[in-house]
Automatic annotation (TrEMBL):
Gene: aroK
Organism annotation: Paracoccus onubensis
One annotated GO biological process: aromatic amino acid family biosynthetic process
Full protein name: Shikimate kinase
Residues bound to Mg(2+): T16
Main location: cytoplasm
Keyword Transport applies: no
Length: 178
């Protein structure tokens, strides 16, 4: 693979789940920026938000992304907010193919509602917060190189296979070239 494949999109879109399966099918490495930040800090994303604040988390996210992207090309899953910073978009564009996992509110809500691991959704009306984030972010997510329909009822394995087919169609040669 010539470039990284970088998964972007909302919380619950499947960046981690589909991204790790994609890496498995392509036999390349998988790195998740949220997980890397957690390992480096020995704290969960929620704990970092609570202790050091979102701005601190965003700085760490940029540093970690830059480091990951310097490595050998693989699949990289980002946190949902990473793509919203212009500097991060430039870093990603320089070394990777960006893939937006596009997903609607109903599906996202089904996937994130049970878990309390997303600090941005700890509000009085988490579904409303999710809806507002969708409105704010979708025009910018739409700037990604590839938009993948992540709504379908496909299994994670089938979704990854469908994404590989789409990348082969839209960016011929990317997966084959060493
Ligand atoms: N295509 C899919 N089919 C079925 N379940 C899915 C699919 N995509 C994601 N999920 C499930 O939805 C949940 C959220 O997915 P995941 O953690 O991959 O989202 P994410 O985009 O990485 O979110 P975050 O930005 O919070 O890290 C997981 O339980 C995952 O297994
Ligand atoms: O959408 C977001 O801004 C976030 C998504 C998660 O992946 C984490 O990076 C964090 O919870 C923030
Ligand atoms: Mg994730």
């Amino acid at each position: 693979m010539k470039r990284h494949i970088v998964m972007i999109g909302m919380m619950g879109a499947g960046k981690t789940a589909v991204g790790s399966e994609l890496a498995r099918q392509l036999r390349v490495s998988f790195t998740d920026s949220d997980a890397e930040i957690e390992t480096a800090a020995a704290m969960s994303v929620s704990e970092i938000f609570a202790r050091d604040g979102e701005a601190f988390f965003r700085d760490r996210e940029t540093q970690i992304l830059a480091r990951i992207l310097q490595g050998r090309p693989g699949v990289v899953s980002t946190g949902g907010g990473a793509w919203m910073q212009a500097g991060n978009r430039e870093l990603i564009a320089a070394r990777g193919l960006s893939v937006w996992l596009k997903c609607d509110l109903v599906t996202l809500w089904q996937r994130v509602r049970q878990r309390s691991t997303r600090p941005l959704l700890r509000t009085a009306d988490p579904k409303g917060t999710l809806a507002r984030l969708i409105e704010q972010r979708y025009p910018t997510y739409a700037e990604a190189d590839i938009t993948f329909d992540a709504n379908s009822n496909d299994s994670i394995e089938t979704a990854a296979r469908r994404l590989i087919a789409q990348i082969r169609r839209e960016v011929p040669g990317l997966l084959e070239a060493k």
